[in-house]
Design brief:
It contains 19 helices and 22 strands. With 684 residues, the protein is an alpha+beta fold. Among the domains are: 76-232 and 634-663, no CATH class; 305-366, no CATH class; 514-597, no CATH class. It has a 6-stranded antiparallel beta barrel. The protein has a 6-stranded mixed sheet with strand order 11-12-13-15-14-20, sandwiched between helices. The protein has a 4-stranded antiparallel sheet with strand order 1-8-10-9. Helix 7 (306-319) runs antiparallel to helix 8 (324-334) and helix 11 (369-378) runs parallel beside helix 13. The chain is globular and about 120 Å long.
Length: 684
């Protein structure tokens, strides 16, 4: 019995020891686990970006515009504070302090000061403050709207407003930095410099040189092609839902639609990361950026089955004609493989599908569209005549297109006539460019010639040919003179980009007997009868000299060249040395006095409308360096508002806003209608 009790007691002790060991082991394990847990890094919360889905029509799903946002599609407003020289005693008034300090600093950086006493020019040995008090100088506000995707070296028009001058006549702008946003003086926050501005100022061509009381604004002007892009503007695609695979597909789709042509350094699209794609506008579309950006958003990302998508888009053209514009762009973006499905709709009975198909076909170079578009262009009742002319003109090497455009130069509808001229001259330039490239390449033993060199040579001179008949010459390196020997006599003036004077009609000559005067009789043309030569008298109030010519050319093109030519020792031919604006003003007065049997009309002004469009509101977004950077909003002044702190004398002299479109007694505030063509008149 004692033995059993001892055995039982031993088992109890053993069980207790085992239980104690288990408890100790469990405690140690738990403690270690807690110690390890305490030393684990605290997990960060996972942030999942919400998937973004654009609310778009079903047929547009799968396009770039449905899955991404395209930025940089608007014009960039740039401004600067500049200095103008060469005035005629109309400047030198008081300059607000912030502008004066800015100009003094800029001049000092450029080496202008009393210590610079080299040469006999007007700047030598003069301080910046002395220059700013000179009555032949002025401070100005310079503004411009740089187009989207602008490349370094591209040119653009400038809008110039005087700060301390009553007139900018005769002025030339010194090189001026252009920054994004409003004008910024010394001490203000400075935005990025993306442009440079300089050149002669172009005033309202209807202004009387030296005049002060004819109701025409002279303290506002422009510089045609005077701006140069120094830092390119960006067009970027930002994916709604970042994905490396989708970004690669989009890049591939874009470069398939717009392959890199010879001479380009970079492809159209380059992927930056999973959400950002950089886009370069191809040189082919630099004159039509808006169309390229529209195409970009309508590119089908999946390029595996273009025929399937072509059929789908063509069917949508018919079933949903309100999407005709979108479907036309989608089909164009697919390229030549869409043509079999497009061509079936060229004669569709409904206007929407028919015009959408014709637009895509013309853009793809399908010659079959010519007959259909020609019918629309010749239809005097159609409201799509100018559209048809522009579309038809995209088809190269078509004699039918050239002859149709030439016939439309006789149209009694001004908008049709001008559109036909613009497109015919553009076709002549393209043909000239192609011939020059071939000639230059053969003369250079097959070496590639820069596109800019070919472009410059082709635009300077276009000889007439039997097919198109139009021609162009560069007059005094100042403006182009285009001759269009068809239709009723017409003088057509352009006032943006390249300055041009276009003369319509055969043998435009001065009429006799003749008595035509301009600018308070300071310019006079006289011929007593049909047999008398045309005499010219001109008094230059700026130089206080008088010119008398006993016989001048009666041919209007020759007279224009005489007015523009400035005699030099190298070329002593007689001339008056008129600026482009003065030549235009003289032609207008001659036309008004019936000195030439020709109508007179001017191109609509787009520069101010572009500036107002770039402003958009009282704020402008300063573009960030990257898609991840914050945008900075700064206030922007309206280009039509007075300059802040400008001299009171300038305010008293300002009467109207410069919009030199058509000479009128009163000029309304600019509106959206200023950007559109005149309503088409019914052709007789």
């Amino acid at each position: 019995m004692p033995h059993r009790q001892n055995a039982l007691f031993s088992r109890l002790i053993t069980h207790a020891l085992i239980l104690s060991a288990l408890l100790i082991a469990t405690s140690l394990f738990t403690g270690c686990q807690r110690w390890r847990d305490r030393n684990k890094p605290i997990p960060k919360p996972t942030i999942t970006a919400p998937r973004i889905s654009n609310d778009i029509p079903t047929p547009l799903r799968g396009t770039i515009g449905a899955e991404a946002v395209i930025t940089g599609t608007e014009r960039t407003l740039v401004s600067g504070i500049g200095f103008v020289v060469g005035l005629n005693g109309t400047g030198g008034l008081t300059i607000p302090e912030q502008y004066a300090a800015h100009l003094e600093r800029q001049m000092g950086l450029n080496g202008i000061g009393i210590g610079n006493d080299q040469g006999n020019n007007a700047v030598s040995g003069r301080t910046p403050s002395e220059l700013m008090r000179d009555p032949n100088t002025a401070a100005v506000i310079v503004q411009a709207a740089i187009p989207p995707g602008a490349r370094e070296g591209e040119s653009f028009d400038l809008y110039v407003r005087a700060i301390n001058a009553t007139s900018l006549e005769g002025g030339r702008l010194w090189s001026t930095e252009l920054r994004i946003g409003p004008p910024s003086a010394f001490g203000d926050p400075q935005a990025r410099i993306i442009g440079d501005a300089k050149g002669p100022i172009f005033l309202n061509p209807f202004a009387e040189p030296g005049g002060q009381y004819d109701g025409v604004t002279r303290d506002i002007g422009r510089i045609l092609d005077g701006g140069v892009v120094t830092f390119p503007t960006k067009v970027e695609i930002i994916l709604n839902n970042p994905s490396h695979q989708r970004a690669r597909q989009i890049v591939s789709a874009i470069n398939t639609a717009f392959p890199m042509p010879p001479g380009e350094r970079e492809p159209t699209a380059r992927g930056k990361d999973e959400s950002l794609i950089l886009v370069q506008i191809p040189s082919k579309y630099l004159d039509d950026r808006a169309h390229f950006l529209d195409l970009l958003s309508h590119i089908t990302i999946d390029q595996s089955y273009p025929e399937i998508y072509s059929r789908k888009y063509a069917q949508t053209l018919i079933s949903q004609p309100y999407l005709a514009g979108d479907m036309s762009l989608c089909l164009e973006a697919l390229g030549d493989r869409a043509l079999p499905f497009i061509s079936d709709l060229y004669d569709h009975p409904e206007a929407g599908p028919r015009l959408g198909a014709l637009r895509a076909g013309a853009a793809l170079g399908d010659a079959r569209v010519v007959q259909h578009l020609r019918s629309i262009a010749l239809d005097t009742e159609s409201k799509f005549r100018t559209d048809a002319i522009a579309l038809m003109s995209q088809i190269d090497n078509s004699i039918l297109v050239d002859t149709t455009l030439r016939n439309l130069l006789d149209s009694s509808q001004l908008t049709v006539r001008v559109e036909a001229y613009e497109q015919l001259m553009d076709r002549a330039l393209r043909a000239r460019r192609k011939r020059l490239a071939q000639v230059l390449a053969s003369n250079n033993d097959g070496l590639l010639v820069s596109s800019s060199q070919v472009e410059a040579l082709s635009r300077a001179y276009v000889p007439p040919d039997r097919l198109r008949g139009v021609s162009r010459v560069l007059v005094e390196d100042s403006f182009f003179l285009d001759i269009i020997p068809y239709g009723e006599p017409l003088i057509y003036i352009t006032q943006q980009n390249e300055p041009r004077i276009a003369l319509f009609g055969e043998q435009l000559n001065l009429t006799k007997p003749l008595l035509a005067s301009a600018w308070s009789d300071r310019l006079m043309l006289i011929a007593e009868d049909y047999s008398s030569p045309v005499r010219l008298y001109y008094r230059d109030d700026q130089t206080r000299t008088t010119s008398t010519m006993n016989e001048v050319p009666e041919s209007l093109p020759e007279l224009i060249e005489l007015m523009a030519h400035a005699p030099t020792p190298e070329d002593p031919r007689p001339g008056l040395g008129f600026s482009y604006a003065q030549v235009v003003g003289a032609l207008y007065q001659i036309s008004e006095d019936k000195g030439v049997n020709a109508s007179f009309t001017t191109e609509q002004d787009r520069l101010l409308a572009e500036l107002l469009g770039a402003v958009r509101s009282e704020e402008i977004a300063i573009r960030p360096e990257s898609a991840q950077s914050d945008e900075v909003l700064v206030p922007i002044d309206d280009p039509t508002n007075p300059v802040v702190g400008e001299n009171e004398a300038v305010r008293r002299e300002r009467r109207t806003l410069l919009v030199p479109v058509v000479r009128t007694d009163a000029i309304d505030e600019p509106s959206e209608s200023s950007q559109s063509d005149e309503p088409p008149a019914r052709e007789e």
